[in-house]
Design a protein that fits this description.
It is found in: Cell outer membrane. Belongs to the TonB-dependent receptor family. Keywords: Cell outer membrane, Membrane, Signal, TonB box, Transmembrane, Transmembrane beta strand, Transport. It is a multi-pass membrane protein. The chain is mainly beta. It is built from 7 helices and 46 strands. The strands form 10 sheets. The protein has a 22-stranded antiparallel beta barrel. A 4-stranded mixed beta sheet has the order 6-5-8-7, with no helix packed on it. The chain has a 4-stranded antiparallel beta sheet with strand order 33-34-35-38, with no helix packed on it. It is globular, with a radius of gyration of 30 Å. About 45% of the residues are buried. Mean pLDDT is about 90; it is low at about 1-50.
Length: about 900
């Protein structure tokens, strides 16, 4: 397994304790995976550590942001994703705007080239990074890029090429079976044999309806991955530098989906004198991508439409001679789009530009005093566009054609200064203390416009068509931080770290703007002193906050409204000047055991997090004509065990064999919600917050069977009309004989009960082999795609099991409801039928490498490493979807909903890395 060198300063390592830096492969053996589900081990000061805290769910939708969970979820309306620092610059992992498509969120870390990352610190709470204060409730990922190093210029060149093969094994009817299915459907709806015989669909001679088209095969492809990177670094006694440039291109397994990145980075450390040094970071990255709708809108979901499209239909129109023309076939007689139109003509694309810069000075005032000050700036712009033509695509309500575009930007400026001192109180007592102040300003902007119904499909521009919607938003916030922290060590046996963070945010009213975030951790080195310790025990407490609101909720806000053709406004939010951040208190205990020095490490920990003052919405009586107000009302708790182990099984001049394993448990529960249940919707799915339940639980109906006969029907619909034989039997929760929203109940939870990894790294002389296995247990998945393939509410192709649906009392079927156009009995409502166990065991990666080291007389290169790797090679699971790794929204309320996005697929890569 490739090792990633640690470069985080020794003071940070002291704070981290066992929370060491680690990395994992994404795109090639040297790349980084911000995940503990996909965690490998790295060498840190000769020790191997693995720590499982971050759960990640991903899929094969290239360029999309993975879903991260670090010690649970603890917010309803704010972000529950970790804050990310890149060389000290904070980055919001989730975007500030709603998704441009229903579930696609561009990866906001995609600007980072993995070859330039030196290490990642996973900091689960504020005790490990006190400066985070009021935005550390979800933990922190502290990413550091490489620096230059003393010596002559060193050149590293790497090149990687790989392929990705995804399996789209979707059970569906073939051409003959689908005709039989439609024949029986039309018969059930009252068509006579004579009418069916006259229907051209069933004509054996009509060329339009006698094809054998594999629509799914026509939209998929073999994905190709390419990556090239050049890195120069070196230095002398006064200056160390790193310059890097890289290019990455990754294709998806659905046609016309791809991701491209071009990046440049320059890092410089310069020693002005024996006491003063400066450091500079500068980087620019451009990324772009083409993607498709793999979310809740099944009308333009290419994988679903290709699965649902009748295989007896053709791809193009036929001319008068019955020959295939060059014109794509339009919307078919059964009402479905042409999948080729969705992948070839409907385009969604984005372009991302980011510039980061840091300039800082470190001044060693005396042997005991040190001053550090830096100024950092970050700017990025994201342009998102969609072009939707009319040919071959089902119209969306009144929109026949559509051009839409959104341009958004974020600007961040921070000044930070830190004055520190270290010394001794007595011979056996040492201390470190620091005062820190920081001022930050942040601004985001977004402009959105959409035009519809242009005259032809020839215009991919907002210059044509009718204005459908437009918006312009701007948001500013300022943050001020004052921090006092210190540590004291007695006789290398006891260490106590403490800090007080006083932070003020303009996101809140004057009465609630300032808050205090304390932290304390005590560590006892029980078996040996600190440097030779074999057993240490630590207790910690910290308070962090979540103030990432995206609205001035402490003010009255008026919103525009159209009133019978006239413009107007209404009071959409009642100001709450007492609104304050959500507060999280974390308690933890952990033990680190090294019974045989550095050869074996065992870590055991337990944490308990309680979040209070959840920002929730309180409704106001509609008669008052107001939208309500946001207030602090609610509590949620997360708790779990974190276990890790690593061992150097063999260590000699020829053979090295290391292993690691981690396990992390998670229990999440909403403990208070004064404003009552909160529901959030995505398509047909509902995420629920309710006292006593896990946050974001699936909410729907519990199906107990199918009504077999009319006289068996004992329930009415919400409108008072009875159900019919063949409809699903839904549990009547309130026993009123009527099925409506009051009969919904919790039907599953997307959060895992435990997760972790097992990794091994074996080398013999210049050969090496590494492997990584991930596992997740207890995370439920709502299989929306499978439900859609069994819905039978239109004339789409379906799963072959629909042939055994309920048809009559004499043909009761095997558990599926009757087929009804329009689903008038709501058999397609979210229900327990489609909740599945998403537990899995996955062989995540295997890498074989060989290293060639230059001899004494070799002048051309120093070493060459050649490697062959495979990812996602094998998965054991009972889940019936593409892949149990389901990536949806980074929303705490709407996770693990499988709409049928491309699976990760098996990836095979060949790479070379040469050092000169």
């Amino acid at each position: 397994m490739n090792k990633i060198k640690k470069i985080v300063s020794s003071c940070v390592v002291a704070l981290l304790g066992s929370h060491t830096l680690y990395a994992q492969q994404i795109d090639h053996p040297d790349s980084i995976r911000i995940s503990n589900l996909n965690l490998s081990t790295v060498s840190v000061a000769g020790k191997l550590y693995g720590l499982s805290k971050v759960a990640v769910m991903d899929n094969g939708n290239v360029g999309a942001s993975p879903v991260l969970v670090l010690r649970g979820v603890n917010s309803i309306n704010l972000s529950s994703s970790p804050l990310v620092y890149v060389d000290g610059i904070p980055l919001r992992y989730t975007g500030t705007n709603p998704t441009f498509l229903s579930t696609y969120e561009p990866d906001r870390l995609s600007f980072l080239n993995p070859y330039e990352v030196a290490g990642i610190g996973v900091l689960p709470s504020g005790v490990y990074l006190p400066k985070v204060g009021g935005r550390g409730a979800n933990g922190v990922l502290d990413i550091r890029t490489e620096r230059g190093e003393f010596g002559g210029t060193k050149v590293d060149f790497s090149a990687n090429y790989g392929i990705n093969k995804a399996g789209y094994n979707i059970p569906r009817l073939d051409a003959g079976s689908m005709k039989a299915y439609l024949w029986s459907r039309f018969r059930e709806e009252g068509a006579t044999d004579q009418q069916l015989d006259q229907n051209p669909i069933f004509s054996p001679t009509n060329l339009l309806y006698n094809n054998e088209t594999d629509w799914l095969d026509m939209i998929r492809k073999q994905g190709v991955f390419q990556d090239y990177h050049v890195k120069l670094k070196g230095g002398d006694g006064d200056a160390n530098y790193l310059f890097a440039v890289g290019y990455t291109n990754k294709e998806g397994t659905v046609k016309n989906t791809d991701f491209e990145r071009i990046g440049i980075r320059f890092n410089l450390d310069y020693q002005l004198s024996t006491k003063v040094s400066i450091y500079n970071n500068l980087s620019y990255t451009n990324t772009s991508g083409h993607y498709k709708e793999f979310g809740a809108d099944y009308s333009t979901h290419p994988i679903y439409v290709a699965s649902a499209k009748a295989p007896f239909l053709g791809t193009h129109y036929l001319n008068d001679n019955g020959e295939l023309s060059r014109i794509l076939a339009g919307v078919d007689t059964l009402g479905l789009s042409n999948p080729l139109a969705l992948v070839d003509n409907l385009t969604n694309k984005n372009q991302f530009n980011r510039i980061d810069g840091v300039m800082g000075v470190n001044w060693k005032l005396t042997e005991s005093w040190n001053l550090n000050s830096d100024l950092s700036v970050s700017y990025f712009n994201l342009s998102e566009k969609q072009y939707r033509p009319a040919l071959g695509i089902v119209p969306d309500f009144y929109r026949v054609r559509q051009n839409s575009q959104r341009s958004s930007s974020e600007f961040y400026l921070n000044w930070n200064s830190r004055l520190s001192r270290k010394g001794k109180v007595a011979d056996a007592v040492t201390y470190e203390a620091a005062l820190q102040a920081a001022v930050e300003t942040y601004e985001e902007k977004a402009i959105y416009g959409r035009k519809v119904n242009a005259g032809t499909d020839d215009f991919e521009t907002l210059a044509q068509g009718i204005v459908d919607s437009a918006s312009n938003t701007r948001y500013r916030s300022n943050l001020m931080t004052y921090l006092a922290q210190g540590s004291i060590v007695w006789n290398d046996r006891i260490r106590v770290n403490a800090s007080v963070n006083v932070q003020g945010s303009s996101n809140f009213g004057a009465t609630a703007r300032w808050n205090i975030y304390p932290a304390v951790q005590a560590t006892a080195y029980i078996w040996g002193k600190k440097m030779q310790n074999k057993l240490d025990l630590a207790l910690g407490y910290d308070r962090t906050g979540n103030h990432e609101v995206r609205g001035f909720y402490h003010y009255n806000q008026y919103y525009p409204v159209n009133y019978f053709g006239s413009g107007g406004v209404y009071l959409g939010n009642v100001g709450n000047p007492d609104l304050r951040p959500e507060i999280t208190d974390t308690y933890e205990i952990k033990a680190n055991i090294r019974p045989f020095g550095n050869r074996v490490y065992i870590g055991v920990g337990y944490y308990y997090k309680q979040t209070k003052d959840l920002i929730t919405h309180r409704a106001i009586r509609k008669e008052l004509g107001m939208g309500g107000l946001f207030e602090n009302a609610g509590k949620v708790e997360n708790k779990g065990l974190e276990l890790s182990m690593s061992a150097q099984l063999v260590q000699n001049s020829d053979v090295k064999w290391n292993m690691s394993a981690t396990l992390s448990t998670l229990t999440n529960k909403v403990t208070a919600l004064p404003n009552g249940d909160i529901e959030q919707y995505l398509g047909n799915n509902v995420g629920l917050a309710r006292e006593g339940e896990a946050l974001g639980s699936f909410y729907g109906y519990k199906v107990t069977g199918v009504f077999q006969r009319e006289e068996q029907v004992n329930l009415n619909k919400s409108d008072g009309t009875p159900y019919h034989a063949g409809d699903y039997i839904v549990e009547d929760v309130n026993k009123d004989g009527k099925i409506n929203t009051l009969d919904r109940q919790v039907i599953g939870s997307p959060l895992p009960r435990f997760f972790g990894h097992v990794a091994t790294d074996f080398s013999y002389k210049n050969w090496g082999l590494s492997a990584l296995i991930n596992f997740v247990q207890g995370a439920d998945i709502y299989n929306s795609f499978k439900q859609q393939m069994h819905l039978m509410s239109d004339y789409a192709n379906q799963n072959p099991t629909v042939m055994n649906r309920w048809r009559s009392e004499n043909e009761p079927g095997d558990g599926l409801s009757r087929a009804v156009v329009g689903d008038r009995s709501s058999n397609g409502a979210a229900s327990s039928l489609w909740v599945e166990d998403g537990s899995y065991l996955k062989l995540k990666s295997v890498t074989l490498h060989h290293e060639i080291v230059a001899g004494a007389g070799q002048l051309f290169f120093k070493r060459i490493r050649i490697y062959l790797s495979g990812d996602n090679l094998w998965t054991w699971t009972k889940y019936t979807g593409f892949d149990p790794e389901v990536n949806g929204l980074n929303s705490p309320m709407l996770r693990n909903i499988d709409f049928g996005a491309p699976p990760l697929g098996r990836t095979y890569r060949l790479g070379v890395k040469a050092s000169f």
